[in-house]
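Q: Hi! Curious about what TetR family transcriptional regulator looks like structurally. Here's the sequence.
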Amino acid sequence: MKTTKEAVIKATSDLADEKGLNNVSLKAVAQKLNIRTPSLYNHIESLDNLLLEVAHNGMRDMNERMMKVAVGKTGKEAIKLVSIEYLNYMIEHPGVYEAIQWAVWHGTEETATIFNNYLSLLTTLIQSCSLNKDKTLEILNMLTGTIHGYTTLQLGNAFSAPDKVRFELAEAIDTLLVGIFQKYK
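A: Let's find out. The predicted structure is below.
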């Protein structure tokens, strides 16, 4: 079977999800693909480059999933659904989620562009709530901080009790939105 760049990225993503990002190495990826490590350089420049590819694919997939759950929804309902889908992605792809977090600090312009798509989705949903438009960025920062912070803090618990963590995130978002609507309506 011929190895492709897509196969290398998929194997790396799977390895990260199975073993954690700290256990991803070019040697481990090559072993997963049953090839020699030097053969990887036919498809990638470096481990960092590969991790960026994994992160970018993950970010695009996560964005697409969040957009799908938001279709036809607005306001509080859409924000809550997008927040839970963010958590769902982390539960299903913990290693890729780690790569995404790494990429936010080590990324490129492409990373920023993909991340801005996520921010644009949330901005659109915030603006669908008819809140004070001048406070959109402030509200966006509160929402992203809550979603990312809660999800990251619950990483371990989300695997042992995913339904409980989903419920608790929904409650946290509801509580945040009550305060936001009270202050910015």
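A: A fun detail: The chain has a mean pLDDT of 94.
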